[in-house]
Design brief:
The protein is α/β, with parallel strands linked by helices. The protein is built from 7 helices and 16 strands. A 6-stranded mixed beta sheet has the order 1-16-2-3-4-5. The chain has a 6-stranded mixed beta sheet with strand order 6-7-8-9-15-14. 29% of the residues lie in helices and 26% in strands. It has one domain: Metallo-dependent phosphatases (Purple Acid Phosphatase, chain A, domain 2).
Length: 282
């Protein structure tokens, strides 16, 4: 074999190894994103109130990732943890893995859960709910929980993924409006909505929600610098709502890039994300 051919093969092997290392890093190295939310509706007693959001866990099997999640949650010392949908994956459902993770964190602070589209499309959802409730997770299916600090209160509203309604002839935004009405909350209080869907941002604005925590978009799966994600469910190519914070009128929405993967088995330039939100009124 000629020397030139050996050099080419060696270069290709090195590049493949580097790509493999990069993909492993990009899919298992946790990134923590911090958001400070300031709103004068937030009571004084809720200043520095910390919420950890975990979205799109998709019963990940990465021990590196789950161990880092647990360590970071303990470091952050949150007041509550919220799980914003797709905790399991309907294509590779493994409730045991999901519940094992919950058992590692359910003695830290209260955990709140809402469904995503994968919970809506799996036959194992009733079993998942049963196991979550056994492990002290509070399921907010179109319900409102009143969070208290001393005598001050705010709303924590959880809504089901629109697919749970099984209304194929009704658009998702209309389903979400109905679900928010079912939740029965006092709009004069500061209100946080846990939802799975970022693409209906206009609906949250219309309902005058103060803060919305969502996932679903997986950060666009493959992110291009200065452009963003390539594709997201229910948004198509070059979607608008894949990561970060969005504000319009009086509504703020935070989109988590999530933890796990689903149909596509890898992310590119799009590390798993743990979202940390801190509330303040000034």
């Amino acid at each position: 074999m000629k020397k030139k051919t050996l050099i080419i093969i060696s270069v290709i092997i090195v590049l493949l190894v580097l790509c493999g290392v990069y993909l492993h890093y990009d899919n298992t190295k946790l990134q923590v994103s911090n958001y400070n939310i300031v709103n004068d509706k937030i009571p004084n007693d809720f200043n520095n109130y910390k919420i950890i959001q975990i979205s799109d866990f998709h019963n990940t099997k990465s021990k590196t990732l789950t161990n880092d999640l647990i360590k970071e949650i303990e470091i952050q010392k949150p007041n509550i943890i919220v799980l914003t949908g797709d905790f399991i994956d309907s294509n590779k459902t493994d409730i045991d893995i999901a519940i094992k993770f919950v058992k590692e964190i359910n003695n830290i602070v209260p955990i709140y859960f809402i469904s995503g589209n994968h919970e809506a499309t799996t036959k194992s959802y009733s079993k998942l709910k049963e196991e979550l409730e056994k492990n002290k997770v509070i399921i907010l299916d179109n319900k409102t929980e009143i969070l208290e600090m001393n005598k001050a209160t705010i709303n924590l509203i959880g809504i089901d993924d629109p697919r749970m309604a099984h209304e194929n002839t009704v658009v998702d935004s209309e389903i979400i409006k109905v679900e928010l009405d079912k939740a029965k909350y006092d709009n004069n209080k500061y209100s946080i909505v846990l939802s799975h869907r970022p693409e209906v941002f206009n609906t949250y604005i219309e309902k005058e929600i103060d803060l919305v925590l969502v996932g679903h978009a997986h950060g666009g799966q493959i992110r291009i610098p200065f452009i963003g994600g390539i594709v997201a469910p229910n948004q198509g190519f070059f979607p608008k709502y894949t990561s970060g914070i969005f504000e319009d009128n009086k509504t703020t929405m935070i989109v988590s890039r999530g933890i796990g993967n689903s149909i596509l088995p890898f992310r590119i330039n799009n590390r798993p994300e743990l979202v940390v939100i801190t509330l303040n009124n000034k």
